Amino acid sequence: MIAERIVSKIARIALRVFLIGNFACALGFAAAIILSVFFAGALEARLIAKYGPCIDVAQVLLAARLLFGLGIVAAVALHRVLATLLVILGTVTTGDPFTFANAGRLRAIGWALLALQLFDLALGGFTAWFGALHVEFVRWGPSLGGWIAVLMAFVLANVFGRGAAMRDDLAMTV
Known about the structure:
The protein is built from 5 helices and no strands. The chain is mainly alpha-helical.
């Protein structure tokens, strides 16, 4: 029981830290978009110095701004996952996790994770785009673990829903 409380406390702290970090990243992406407009000339000069005069600076800046925008949208989806996990953790702490509300919360997490996986596929598109522009960019590969997490969230949502129904049936028979 004491170990469960400690783990729960650590998980709650970790989720709050992740929420703060996620918010900071979203702000950083927004700042990058804004600053890329104000410092477009300096960015252009830097890109030309690094890649030569044949680089399509307008396309590189457009791709970067769109990528940062996608990062903001992904941060919203991740916020949904983290905040919802924090709520579910609260119900686990109080001893009543198998509720229809938590089943719905897990389903919402599943949809947010699916959105994140689709954003990951979009990142693959950005990788190809930057490659076509002959600009260095991260390597990309599809995330099998992410797709498994999506499926797991939906399966757990059904398990929690079934658990809530069984608990309600048991309460009615007593």
